Predict the structure.
Amino acid sequence: MALSKHSVRGLVAIAAALAIYGCAAGDGTTIVNGDALRNYDAPENVGDWLTHGRDWGEQRFSPLDQINADNVSELGLAWFDDLETMRGVQATPLVVDGVLYNESIYNIVTAYNGATGEKLWTYDPQVGPEWARLACCGPSSRGIAAWNGKLYIGALDGRLIAIDMATGEEVWSTQTFEREGLLNAYSITGAPRVYDGKVVIGNGGADYGVRGFVSAYDAETGEEEWKFWIVPGNPADGPDGDASDSAMEIALPTWSGEWWRWGGGGAAWDSFAYDAERNLVYIGTGNGSPHMWSIRSDGEGDNLFLCSIVAVDADSGEYKWHYQMVPEEDWDYTCTQPIMLADLEIDDETREVLMQAPKNGFYYVIDRGTGELISAETYVSENTWASHIDMETGRPVLQPGAHNTTTPHLMNPSWLAAHTWHPMSYSPLTGLVYLSAQEQPDIYAAQEKEDFTFNYHRSNSGQLRGNMPELRAQLAEERAAKEKGYLLAWDPVTQTEAWRVPYDHPGSGGVLATAGNLLIQGTIDKTVAIYRADNGEKLWEMEIDQAPIAGPITYMVDGEQYIALNAGWGGSPVYNLGPFTTSTAKLLVFKLGATGVELPPAPPPSELPRPPFLMATEAQVARGRDLYGEACERCHGPNAIGGVADLRWMTPETRAQFNEIVLEGILEDKGMIGFADTLTEEDAAAINAYLIARANEDYSDASAGGHAQ
Ligand code: HEC
């Protein structure tokens, strides 16, 4: 997997020559298949971006070097597309034969001519806006997959959809999880991957209460091939009859109490990697449900396979090995962060490794054949979770007081993560891994188990809130003082920091390293920045009034190299930033010598009235939605959008008169008849709650003139 500097440059020269005399955008000569993905750096593929992490090992390193440290000052905006949303846009685009495939919010996929930005087609799977309520961080997706003439979309509502790459027409669609029922608060935000004809997809929802699983489907037909549960179900129900049955025998003894009542969690919402030689799929698993170990498992047991790497056979889904980073998961820590495969020289030996920087602030290097821990070091300035990892046992040595009690305490790292889903990159030329690191502590306290109530489709963490206000105020001050973000260059062999680029706040984006000695990142300073990959010196920066969080890519069309990234902030919370931007998210594409393309100026702040906070219960909102559908929708529009008067944007005065308007009919002369004969005050309150919920869902977008208006 490691390429020497020499061979990389040779390949690129051939690629450039081929591109000049060979393919134009979209001539369809490349079939994305096992051959192409095994030879991703071959001349005919090196200018493409065929899979989420560029290669199955997800190194996100490109050998292209036409744009390099010597000429990057000539970089300019070649074209852009306004994605017309204020929501976070997290997707890594794909490029095949000069066509760029991008995914915006609500899984809308668009194909562009990669050189000109001309739109070739758009596919909208029509995901209902109500699904945004089940996605912690917005209706965003981290990307799509390509295989044999088709693209694969993991839709927020659980559909896995195959569409034709040439036309955007749907080929098949399959529902990957059940939608109804107490423990089915699933959603999909991760990118599907295709490994030799099998589409692998996970899901999220452990914050709401689910039993996490991963499933694989035939890429041609959409038929399910295997399913791997991450945590055990109710032992009284017996084995699932799925690929994970043998693994659940290992996991079951590590649980106590009645975790299955709340799902147990473990949802694999982002990362996978594939070792094609070993035919192994690596799964990064998530946090517990509920978060608090004392509630979930009576404070006993490691709770496998929460916050672990699990290796399974790609054909059968059968368990091969696991390594658990976070036993006794108690902090909403996830190990769903990007998994990267590489070959490293460690102690004069070539080791085939798997690497990850999960939420807990440690950098792990693991033997990808056996799961043996090779090394692990923390890269944050203070780690209140563990002092170190015991190399004899592979277990963390927890700091005293790390586990949660009813007394609030500050944890750093916290659920806000020392590093989260933002893609990292490894350059075989510098030997360094680059990642968006941050220090965002937070306050934790656990409810007593008997005080915990589980609410349908609501966040069910088990956090105790609001007790000991003086202590909390003091901890909040400490938290604010400690907050920071930085771009970290890390040596995975010596497990030491090479250098860092500090930022004023957490929240910068994914990274890409190239053979041109470039390191590209969207920053929380609302810029796109390019640094030297070897030493971090800043080479180029452009203000864009948006902080891109997604992973950048690079590609080649007709002999010209491009750099592209989605610039739309959101998707993981950052405190203390205030009103951030009024600009919509955009897909930005750069090349050398481009001039004349300008981003529109930032619009003035919104004049829409900010909706009140939602104080109602989920049940009230649900009842309000039904009543709205029955009594109001035909005039005020589906999902409360538009209609005779858009009820999301009522003024405070109208809100104050809501009951008089709706029940007594004080606006009858305008055509708004009263409903006192069919609706009670309670009904009106429920409808109002639904309208407030809808307003909160859409406010940021609508105030910027975006998608949901
Ligand atoms: C038959 C059509 C119709 C139906 C059904 C209807 N409305 Fe209206 N509604 C109107 C019209 C017309 C207006 C006045 C629009 C204008 O100001 O010009 C209005 C205005 C309102 C306003 C004032 C909005 C503002 O910002 O000034 C509220 C609040 C309202 N409707 C709530 C409801 C609710 C709640 C329901 C369901 C229980 C409902 N309406 C059902 C036609 C309807």
Summary: The radius of gyration is 25 Å.
